[in-house]
Amino acid sequence: MAAVGSMQKGEEEWRTGEYVDFNKEGIYGCAGCKTPLYKSTTKFNAGCGWPAFFDGIPDAITRTGYEVAKQHSGRLKQCVFTVSACVPVYCEGVLRNKWHSFGGRGLVERRVFLDTSRRLYFRGRWSESSGRRVETYAGVDVASAVDVINDLGFDTLTFLMVTVIIVPAFRVLKASPILGFFFAGVVLNQFGFIRNLTDVKVLSEWGILFLLFEMGLELSLARLKALAKFAFGMGLAQVLLCTLAFTAFELPPNGAIGTRILEFLFHSRPDLVNIRSIDEAIVIGAALSLSSSAFVLQLLAEKGELPTRFGSATLGILLLQDIAVVPLLVVLPVLESQNLVGESILPMLAKESAKALGGLGILSLGGKFLLRRIFEVVAETRSSEAFVALCLLTVAGTSLLTQKLGFSDTLGAFLAGALLAETNFRTQIEADIRPFRGLLLGLFFVTTGTSIDMEVLFREWPNVLTLLAGLIVIKTLIITALGPRVGLTLQESVRIGFLLSQGGEFAFVVFSLANRLGVLPLELNKLLIIVVVLSMALTPTLNQLGRKAADFIDEKIGNEENEDEEVNFDVSESIVIIGFGQMGQVLANFLSTPLVSGVDSDLVGWPYIGFDLNPAVVKESRKQGFPILYGDGSRPSVLQSAGVSSPKAIMIMYKGKKRTTEAVERLRLAFPATKIYSRAQDLPHLLELKKAGATDAILENAETSLQLGSKMLRGFGVMSDDVSFLSRVFRDSMEIQAQDEITAAETNAAAAASQVPPLMKPMRMKASDTADLQLVKPEQVKASDSKVDSAEVLQETDDGLNQPETDNGFVGKADKAPE
C-alpha cells in the first residue's frame, strides 16, 4: 500500500521513506515543530529518496563525517547513512528521548518510532499553498502508545512530588519557588527521571498561555492610566534603549564587538558566541530587556512597598514590558518565514503587520462584546464549574484562533486576557485560573531547568559570568539614568535599576519560540537560558545592593523629596464587604460618610471594596459608582487577586447559615489579625459564628424586632431619645446573653451538644431603673464601648426620617446616643 500526496504529486513507496516524482520546489520540514529540514530545487535527487548533501539549507548542515553538524535551528542533526552522497536528516524533538525521523533509521531506545508514521511539511517558495502536507501510512504501534501514556503518567507523578517538596521548602528559606523548579529540572534531567520530555514540554506550554492570559488581565485602562507616567515614560524608553544596547553589542553579524571581546579574553568558541544575523541580535536584545515580574512583585509585596512611588514606578515598567512582549510574538513568526523563504523582511513585516491589525482587530472587537455576554450568561447560572470551564475554553479558543491567523498561540492568550480586563469578572477569573497557572507554569520552569546544560555551564563559565555581568550593568545604568527624567529621586532610580536588572520569565517564552521557529541556534539558546536563570536567582541580592547604594547616596547627597509618597489606587488595606445586596449597600453608604473617618481632612469615609456573585448587582452597583467587583469574596485567593493583602475589616453580609460560617472559617485562617463581622440568623448561628472566628455578629431577626418596636413606640408618641436608649439597653442585654451562652457551651459539653436552641430571657425593668440608667453617661453604659458594636454599624436607617436610631461611629469610636 502506498500513500499519495496529491497536492505535490508525490508517492511514497510502502514503508521505505522514498518518494517518486516528488518534484515541487521548496523547503521541507517536520509537520510537528515546523523545523526546516532541507531544500529541494528540482526533486529528491539522491538514490535513497532523500536529498543529496548539496541540496541542504545553506549554513544549516555542515558535513563532518559521523559527528554532529553545526546546528542552524537548534533541532537539526545530520549523520551519514551510507558512504554515498545520501545524507538522511533527523529532526530532534526534545533532547535525547524522542526524535522526529525522516528517512534512514530512527533513534532506537526503548521504542522505535516508525519513519513513515510522521508527516512531511512543505513550504513552497512561490506557492500560495504553504502548509500542505504529505501523509504517509503506518500501522498503529499499540505498545508504543501505551508506553507514552505510562511515561507521561510517571512524569506527572514525579512533577507533583517535586512541587509538594520544593514549594514549602523554598518558602521556609524565603526564596522564590521558581528557583526550586529550575533546580528540580536540572536534577531530574541529569539523573534521567523524566521519561517523555517531549509530551511534558507540550503540557508545560499551557503554563505560558495562562501566564500571558493573566498578564492581559492586568492591563485594565484604569491601571494603565494610574501608571501612565512610569509605564509609557520610563518603561517604554527602558525597553527600547536596552534592546538597542544589547543589539549593538551583538553587531555586526559574524564580527560583533561582544564576540571579539569574548574570543580575545576567554578564547570562546566562535560557533557559540558568534551572532550570524541581525534577526538573532534583535531577538536576543529584546528578550534580555525584559525583567522578572514574578520575582520583583513578590519582593515588593513582602516589603510592603507596592503602594509607594518606588513600587509604582517599578510596577509601571513591568507593565510596559508585558505589553512589549506582544510585538515580539508577532515578529518572531515573520523572522522564521523570512529565514525559510529567503524574501526581504520589510515586505513580509508590512504584510504581517497589516494582517495583525486586520485579523487581531476583528478578533478583538468581536471578542470584546461576545466574551462579555457569554461570561454574563454563565455567571447568572452561579455554577463555579461552568465558570472555570469557560475560563479554560477562552484561553484555548483564542490561542487556537490566533494560530489559525498565523500568529503564536501565546499572543492569543494575552489578547483574551486583555479583552476581559475591563469586565466585572476579571478578579474572579484571575482567582480561578491561578491554580492551573501555578502548576503548569511550575512545570514550564521545570522543563526550562532541563534545558540548563551543566556541561555548557562548566565549560563556558567565563562566557556565562561575563554575559551575566554585562546584562546587570547595562540594565542598571539605563534604568538609573531614566528615573530622574520622570520625577524620581536618584535613590529611587538606583533601587529600581538594581531591582530590574535581571532577566525575566518572558525571556524563556521568547527564547523557546525563537528556537522552535529556527531563529536561534540550540547552543546559543542554552547559554542565554543559563545567564537569565542565574540573573533571576540573584534578584534578592540585587535588591539589597540597590537599597545599600540608595542609602549611601542619601548619606552623601541627601534628598528632601519624600521617597515613600503614597499612590492612592492601592486597596490593600480597605474594608471588605462580602455580599452587596441591600444591607451591603447600606453599609457602603454608611462607610462613605465623612464622619466615620474620625479625622478632620478631605477623606470621605473609610476606603472599602465590595464583592458579589450576582452579575446584575455588580453591573448596576458599578453604574451607581460603588467600588464593587464580581467574585466570591469569601475566598482569600479572590481578595488577593483584587490586591487586598491586609484588609482593615471584613463584613460578611451573606444570608445562608452554612455559607456564612464557611466564609468566616476561611477568612479567619487567611487573616488571623483582621476583624470579621457577620450576620447571624438566630442565637445558635451566632454562637457558631463566634466559634468559627467571627469578631462579632448581629442577630438579624432581633434587629428587625427592635426596628419595628422602635417605629411603633414613636407612633405612640414616645420620645426618640427614649426609644434609642431602650434599643441600646436591649442590644447590650442580648450581647451579654450571647456571651453567657458561649461561656456555658465552652464549659458544659452536654449543653453544647443540645439540639434545643437557646431562648431569649425576658427583661423586666422598672421606670426607676430606666431613670437611673438615663443619668449615666453613654460612654459609661458598657465597659466594651471602645469596641465596634456591629449591630449599630449594620442596622438600616428609617425611611424618610432624619432621626437616627444608631450611632455615627465606627472602628475605634465609642457609642454615642443622639442628642
From TrEMBL:
Identify the residues that the record assigns to the MsrB domain, covering every copy: 1-64
UniProt biased composition (Basic and acidic residues): 779-790
* InterPro entries per the UniProt record, alphabetical: Cation/H_exchanger_TM, Met_Sox_Rdtase_MsrB_dom, Mss4-like_sf, Na+/solute_symporter_sf, NAD(P)-bd_dom_sf, RCK_N
| CC per GO annotation | chloroplast; endomembrane system; membrane
Q: Which UniProt keywords apply?
A: Antiport, Electron transport, Ion transport, Membrane, Oxidoreductase, Potassium, Potassium transport, Redox-active center, Transmembrane, Transmembrane helix, Transport
Question: Can you name one GO molecular function term for this protein?
Answer: antiporter activity
Region feature (Disordered): 766-819
Q: Taking the first listed entry, what is the main subcellular location of this protein, grouped into a coarse class?
A: membrane
Sequence intervals crossing the membrane: 177-194, 231-249, 281-301, 313-334, 464-484, 496-515, 527-546
| Cofactors named for this entry | Zn(2+)
What are the GO BP annotations of this UniProt entry?
potassium ion transport; proton transmembrane transport; response to oxidative stress
Q: How does it sit in the membrane?
A: Multi-pass membrane protein
Domain RCK N-terminal, chain residue ranges per copy: 572-699
Q: List, alphabetically, the PROSITE patterns matched.
A: MSRB, RCK_N
Record localization:
Endomembrane system
PANTHER family, from UniProt? Answer: K(+) EFFLUX ANTIPORTER 3, CHLOROPLASTIC
User: Belongs to which family?
Assistant: Belongs to the MsrB Met sulfoxide reductase family.
The protein here is known as: MsrB domain-containing protein
